[in-house]
Amino acid sequence: MVLTKSKAIILAAALILAAACMGAAALQREQMALAEKLIRLHVVANSDSEADQAVKLRVRDAVLAVTQPLTAGEDPYGALAGALPEIQQAAEDCLSTLGVSDAVAVSLGPEEFPTRVYESFALPAGQYMSLRVTIGQGAGHNWWCVVFPTICFAATASDLESAAVSGGFTDSEVRLITEDGGYRLKFKCMEWVEQLRQWLFAS
């Protein structure tokens, strides 16, 4: 493939960026190992209206009420996969109670996520197993978190670490998601480099 001058300049910039993100390859391997132990929750609102965003959070709560007991066993993925009809029913019942006529779709499968920084932890961009709940047109802002292990609502850093360890995380993986500063900058670097790579070599 022949690169145009503008693409060549951007490629050079990408290489500089990659150099600035030393250790990105190792970090990517850690992300992939981490992803094998996580199941994320992705709730997508019908729209960005205030009412639809409020509905999204109520549906989230209804879904979590069903999933939390399911992920306490030895096979959280299998438990969730077997309970998809029950999870969908909980979401539909929630919408019905709220007087909302939107349809809802529930699925479990791999999904690409951007870097996401939460109050007490961060997750690098990459592919993760995802329990996705789409309300109506699915055109509104998302709510992302982690359904297994249950670390979204850990009250303290100690609670977060304990939940992560119980979910099979190693010490280095706990540090990866909880340490501020350098790791989170590298998360963004990984995301930028991947976006540039996809743009440069798109057919």
TrEMBL record:
* Entry keyword annotation includes Signal: yes
**In terms of domain of life, where is this protein from?**
Bacteria
Question: Which UniProt keywords are given for this protein, alphabetically ordered?
Answer: Signal
The signal peptide, as residue positions, is 1-26
Protein name as annotated: Stage II sporulation protein R
Q: Which organism is it from?
A: Candidatus Avoscillospira stercorigallinarum
